[in-house]
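Retro notes, item 3 of 5
We never archived the inputs for the D-glutamic acid complex last cycle. Fixing that now. Sequence and ligand:
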Amino acid sequence: MTAVPTILVFDSGLGGLTVFREVVKARPDARFVYAADDAFFPYGRQDESKLIARVLQVMGELIVAHRPDLVVIACNTASTLVLAQLREQFKTPFVGTVPAIKPACASSNSKLVTVLGTEVTVKREYTRTLIREHGQDCVVTLVGSPRLAELAELELNGEPAADADIAGEIAPCFVTVNGARTDTIVLACTHYPLLLKRLETLALWPVSFVDPAPAIARRVLDLAGQPVPGAAMSATRFAFTSGKQPSPALQTALRRFGAKLETVSGLSS
Ligand code: DGL
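Structure as it came back at the time:
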């Protein structure tokens, strides 16, 4: 790996910014490309075989265009489906984002843990295997949210969702069994930490929300090494498969997530 690596962070949309933010903090000197397959958003509603083919094709184009040293798949819906094929097909190292079931179950006191993800992520064998292997003595409730990722995108674009809409999506996460209550909710979609403050306010009772982004940034450091002291931050390159230009609200949000804005490029969808 080069001393100042090019790191490509990939998601279906803007949820990957919650991972990007932590990776930028860990390696502020790296060259970053943030790629969003927004022409195919939301991944949570795509047919599996079409999504596998789509991610492999878009990743192939991105690797040719940007020559990353490392790719972060900042999307649970893609990682739980296609990470193995990506690693088989491309030589570039990949860091995936998968539901943080192990740390959540290890830290839960009530032993009632909920995994909140897209409808497809919570159904995947990958997720069920994580629960079998790391669920320990916890009762794990799986909640697939049809709309939360889209509500998070709107919020980031300056159109906040109604409380009732968010509350309706998260209500099934709160479970009571013999007087014990859910105390830990795994955010198994990278879009959801965008709504963290709203989730905390609308929670039926206080819980810990587990965001995997800091752990992903640590994994990036394991592979890419520590930052080069004194290296200047370079402008983040953006590649949106829709070719859309970010609105002023989005540009402000991108800066808030640690991006340095200069150019915005489209990519064929
Ligand atoms: N951000 C994505 C995830 O982590 C998915 C959102 C979507 O495209 O449905 O699962």
